[in-house]
Design a protein that fits this description.
heterodimer; A: mainly alpha; 2 domains; about 60% helix; B: alpha/beta; TIM Barrel; eight-stranded parallel β-sheet; about 45% helix; about 15% strand; globular
């Protein structure tokens, strides 16, 4: 199996590139006019979750969980067919 | 490198795609019934679609030496209208015995509604009645966790043989839910959502190489019919042996699909 150094050699540049994409995305949102919607706080929550995943949870799982609908009962009906990428708690209530 | 593409929507792809995947080692391909990108206006639209899956696509694949198999159902995106869904489901017995039909799929949930769940449960009963395996679609993005849990609960209530059910589109947070309950898991390799090759290999390394496959689920959207073979190459970069790579991209899908009476290579 590859070592930590091998994994860095394989993926560091790609991850660095993607981290800058995230930073630029957040700057871009901040720079433009108007209001953000529910996806913006969800994104920040996911970033926090990534940095401090709950015990027993990987960083990737913590990001998924931050974006997920945690309700347990089936919805009455569907008003849309697609997904936004982040759960909209207000719309669900 | 030989491989099986266990989930591809070739009705949306060109003949050149068949040629390309044949050139890189695809020996068999499985096409679940799914959403066409729009809601069909009548059950007759599904009749034509089932003919396409059972007549036209196998012939198109055979020109390149690829064996084509399919799964039948009404997909969850069009299952919100239960009257319409039942009209479509009534067509399935007319097609279930066709020689390339594997079982019922890809059934499941989309927005996790009561109607979707009812139709999902009725599909399970069809699979049980005809003694066929099941291929399951899990919802997208924020709906995946809840949908996967609802699906697992419904499968438990229906008392299905878990070794004959594959729950597809798992990611890091749902893979352990599926595998720990004794179901098979599928990972979908997409350029913009679901799994990247690197993450799919992380999932394999974390949760093991048993009862799991990966697929391109290439369709009309942004997707890559070469995704499985690209992930296999990524596994080599991660120092996985040729035997392990072959297990994941050939032996595992073959083992699951061999439970379908019509599957053969």
């Amino acid at each position: 199996m590859p070592t930590k150094k091998d994994i860095q050699d394989l993926y560091f540049m790609d991850a660095r590139f993607k981290l800058l994409e995230i930073a630029s995305f957040l700057d871009r949102v901040e720079r433009h006019d108007g209001e953000t919607d529910f996806r913006h706080p969800a994104f920040h929550e996911a970033l926090k979750a990534m940095q401090n995943p709950p015990v027993g949870t990987t960083r990737a799982q913590a990001v998924h969980l931050a974006f997920s609908d945690h309700s347990t009962e089936p919805a009455e009906s569907a008003t849309i067919q697609f997904a936004f990428g982040a759960h909209n708690e207000e719309a669900a209530q | 490198m030989r491989y099986i593409e266990p989930h591809a929507h070739m009705v949306s792809r060109t003949t050149a795609d068949y040629q390309t995947i044949a050139q890189v080692g695809c020996e068999a391909l499985c096409e679940p019934a799914f959403w066409a990108g729009y809601d069909r206006a009548s059950a007759q639209g599904f009749y034509d679609y089932y003919r396409q899956l059972t007549e036209y696509e196998p012939a198109r694949a055979a020109k390149f030496g690829i064996k084509h198999f399919c799964w039948l159902c009404i997909n969850p995106k069009e299952a919100e209208d239960p009257v319409f869904a039942r009209e479509v489901m009534a067509l399935i017995p007319d097609f279930i015995d066709r020689p390339n039909v594997l079982g019922i799929g890809e059934i499941g949930l989309n927005k996790n509604t009561k109607n979707e769940l009812a139709i999902f449960e009725e599909h399970i009963e069809i699979a049980k009645k005809f003694d066929r395996p099941i291929l399951i679609h899990t919802p997208h993005l924020e709906d995946k966790l809840k949908g996967t849990r609802l699906i697992i609960d419904a499968l438990k209530n229906a008392n299905v043989d878990r070794s004959r059910v594959i729950i597809d589109h798992v990611e890091e947070h749902t893979a352990p839910l599926v595998l720990d309950e004794g179901f098979w898991a599928g990972m979908t390799l997409y350029p913009e959502s679901k799994c990247s090759p690197a993450r799919a290999i992380d999932i394999l390394e974390t949760f093991g190489m048993e009862n799991i496959w990966m697929n391109s689920a290439c369709d009309w959207g942004i997707s890559d019919p070469l995704a499985v073979i690209k992930c296999a190459l990524e596994m080599k970069k991660r120092q996985h042996s040729a035997e392990i790579v072959e297990k994941v991209i050939f032996d595992n899908p073959k083992a699951f699909l061999s439970q379908c009476p019509n599957f053969s290579l």
